[in-house]
User: What shape does this take?
Amino acid sequence: MYEVDHPAYKKLQQIGKEITTKVKPKAVVVFSAHWQAEEKNTIEINTKEINPLIYEATLTIPKEKYPNVGSREISNQVIVSLKTSGIEVKPVSRGLDHGVWASFKVAFNPEENPLNVPIVQVSLFSSEHPNQHYNLGRAVAHLRSQNIAIIVSGMAVHNLRDLRYTMGNSKPLPYTSSFDEALKDAVTTLPAEREQKMAELLKRPDARQAHPTFDHLLPIFVGAGAAGEDVGERLFTLKEGSMSWAQYRFGAVAAN
Assistant: This one.
């Protein structure tokens, strides 16, 4: 968040500007790698309208500010959508975790490119089941037709355990390159084949190297499920040590 000259930072700014100036959503529903529900087969949704920023105990960064507002109306729409799809829902009063506010502060800088619409955060399941998360996306897909943007926040490759071995050397580890490209192939395939090909990623021999836990991978399954028949496109990637900063979009953005 503080490396303003990093290529991923600049690309995220560009995507954020595209969202505020071309997509112009009336609200954002966001799924983050940093929130998995506590109860099995249940999704939690934040219904709080004034959202504090949540800091993880492992973070040693200065306290930040990110002005934001939730929406009871939008959160209720999400609750109805999930229940209609047979998903158990638990409303909670929470806040925004750094999987949301750190990336949003780059994409939607409050001073340079404010989002100015409600943000409703929804959890992942407690499981690592790919199809369960794909179906979670399907359950909220229709919100897109109401100009509600679905944003998912994770990482294409995320291995903090190996980060210490790559400090000062940006050369990607072998599994970073192989898994990043496999993810691209699966996400950008034909929508009719996408769910199966993405699920197969978790069975790859490099999967647990790229993601010792799958929490940072699961959000893109939600995004792909919400995409319906829209094709996925990789907008950017940067393989760096034990990380990949790939960024994806589903569906075309209308020209002004």
Observations:
- The mean pLDDT is 94.
- The two ends are 29 Å apart (CA to CA).
- The beta strands are 27-36, 42-46, 88-92, 119-124, 148-153, 157-158, 232-236, 239-240, 243-244, 247-250.
